[in-house]
Amino acid sequence: MPLAIALLGRRRPTADDIRREIVALQAEPKPFRPPAALGRSLDVSPSTSPAGWPVFTVTPRGTAPISPVLYLHGGAYIREITRHHWKLVGQLASAGASVTVPIYPLAPRGTAAHVVSGSADLAEQLAARGEPLVIAGDSSGGGLALAVALALRDRGTVVPDHTALISPWLDATGSHPGILEVAPRDPWLHLGGLTVAADAYRGDLDREHPWVSPLNGDLAGLGPITLFTGTRDILNVDARRFRPLATDAGVSLDFHEAPEMIHVYPLLPIPEGKKARTVLCGLLAN
To answer: Nearest to residue 41, comparing CAs of 61, 58, 57, 56?
Structure first.
C-alpha cells in the first residue's frame, strides 16, 4: 500500500494543504449520499438525527437485523464520508447489523462540543430500542466514537455494549515524541496537517479536552473495546499508549496491532484489511 500510494502520486497533506482544503470544502461540500450500488442488496433509509443532521440507516434485506451499530466516519473532522466508509457499512449490514450513519457537520462549522453531544443524542435514541449497541468509527471517527462513549458514560444513561476503534485519532495534541519516529514511515498522515484539522474542530475546547483528545478521558466504566492499529501509522503511538490506560481502568480491550500496516488499513482491499473486517463483523454476534 505505501508503494501504491507513492505510484498514485499522493503525498501527505501538510498544514498549508489542510488550510486550503478546509476553505475549499466549506465553499464546495462533497456529496455524502450512499452510492446507488449499496441499495441493490441492502435497504437504505434516510432520516434525521435529534440534532437535525441527515442520517442513513443500512439494514439487511429480508431478515431482521441482529444488532444496531452507530458508525462515525473518519476524515480528520473536515472531510465527508467516502465510498470506502460506505463499503464497510455495507459489509456490516450484510453481516446482519442495522448500521446508522450520521452525516455530522464538518469542522470548522461542526465543532467538538456540538458533534460529540449530537452523536451521543443519536446513540441514546438507538439504545432506546433495548438492543445491544455497538459504536464504531475510523480515524477521527474512531476518536469521536470513544469521545461519545465517554459522554454517554458521564450522562449516566447508556454505556455502549461494544466500541470498535479503527486506527483511531486519540490525541489531537500530537505531542508524544514517538510520533516523530514513526512519521518518516507513514505515507498517509502528516502531523502538521492533523494539528490544523484539530484546531478547526476543537472550537472553544482545548486540544487536551477528552472530547477532542479522548486519550485524556477517564476510561473507568466503559464497556469492551476493540482497537485496530498499524505500525506505519503515526496514530499507532497513541493507540499503544491507550492499551495500559484501558487495563488500569478495568476496561476489556481487544488490541489488534498489524505490523507494517498503514492508517485505516481495515478499510482497504488487502488481506490484512479483510481479516480485520471479519473481526468487526464478528462483534455483531457477541
So the answer is: 61
Diameter over CA atoms, the chain: 51
Catalytically annotated residues: 139, 233, 263
User: What predicted TM-score, i.e. pTM, was given to this entire model?
Assistant: 0.95
Residue the block writes with cell 470513544: 146
Classify domain 2-283 at the CATH class level: alpha beta
Give the whole-angstrom CA distance, residue 61 versus residue 153.
33
DSSP secondary structure of 85-105: HHHHHHHHHHTTEEEEEE-PP
- Distance (Å, whole) CA 191 – CA 181: 12
pLDDT, average across residues 194-221 = 97
Q: Which position has the higher pLDDT, 1 or 246? A: 246
Kindly list the domain boundaries of the chain, sorted by start residue. Answer: 2-283
User: Which residue, chain included where needed, has cell 466514537?
Assistant: 145
Residue 4 reports pLDDT greater than 80: no
**In this structure, are residues 54 and 32 in contact, taking their beta carbons and an 8 Å threshold?**
yes
| Whole-number Å distance between alpha carbons of 182 and 178 | 7
Residue 58 pLDDT > 60: yes
DSSP 145-178: HHHHHHHHHHHTS---SEEEEES----TT---TH
pLDDT of residue 7: 42
100: pLDDT strictly greater than 80: yes
Q: What is the rounded end-to-end Cα distance, in angstroms, of the chain?
A: 32
Query: What band does 142 get if pLDDT is binned at 50, 70 and 90?
Result: very high
In whole angstroms, what is the distance from residue 23 CA to residue 107 CA?
10
Nearest to 129 by CA among 70, 71, 68: 68
